[in-house]
Amino acid sequence: MTSPSSKRIPPMRHSTRHPRRPLLRIASWLVFAMGITALGYVAFTLIDAQLYQAYAGWRLEKAIASERLSPPEVPSGDRPVLSARVEPISPVIPGSTVGRIQIRRLGLNVMILEGVDTKTLRRGVGHVPGTALPGQYGNAALAGHRDTFFRELRNIRAGDNITLTTAKGTYYYRVDSTRVVPPDDTSVLQDSADPILTLVTCHPFEFVGSAPDRFIVRAHREQN
């Protein structure tokens, strides 16, 4: 029979597992999943933009070919064709192909789509609704993102040539000036009695986040 004094209390074993480790593991997996999701979204937007640029280019070439097969429009009287405001035959559908903008010195070659909503500007350069269409008399305004399709505008300068191609024809513009304005300055979109072109993007080009200003390129149309 053992005495009470001979009984020993077994040593207490403390767990070496830190209670916060499962939480840290979950947090790390969440961060990893968010990173993969972000990369996937970037890849999707890039691929979607490239595919839509190719699709819009195909639609433009098809429209040009169809226009060439149509009978020529006869001007009424002695009215000069260039002096008349050319109205679109049919309403411009949001997201539809308007044409192509090219600035050869900058290597810029992008399809123009109707509208300036998020989806449209993700896929191309947007024609600002309510402004003149390329080739018309008035102020034709185009907008694009500074970190994608209009990134090369950071190197544009007065005298550069801009080519706009639509189903109705090819139009040539020459850059007159560039300037930076506040985002609420809508005067750059005002109509004009002359055929001019306004390009709009955010500024500064290297700004991280939502840029505070707008970079404006103004050009005039030249005789073909």
Strand order of the largest sheet: 1-2-3-4-7-8-6-5
Q: List unreliable stretches of 5+ residues.
A: 77-90
- The total count of strands amounts to 8
Query: Which oligomeric form is depicted?
Result: single chain
Report the radius of gyration as a whole number of Å.
Answer: 29 Å
Q: What does this molecule look like?
A:
The chain has helices at 21-69, 118-123, and strands at 97-103, 108-114, 125-127, 138-143, 161-166, 169-181, 195-203, 213-222. With 224 residues, it is of the alpha+beta class. It has a single domain, classed as Sortase (Sortase, Chain: A, Beta Barrel), CATH 2.40.260.10. The chain has an eight-stranded mixed β-barrel with strand order 1-2-3-4-7-8-6-5. A hairpin with a 2-residue loop joins strand 5 and strand 6.
List keywords for this structure.
8 strands, elongated, 25% helix, alpha+beta, 224 residues
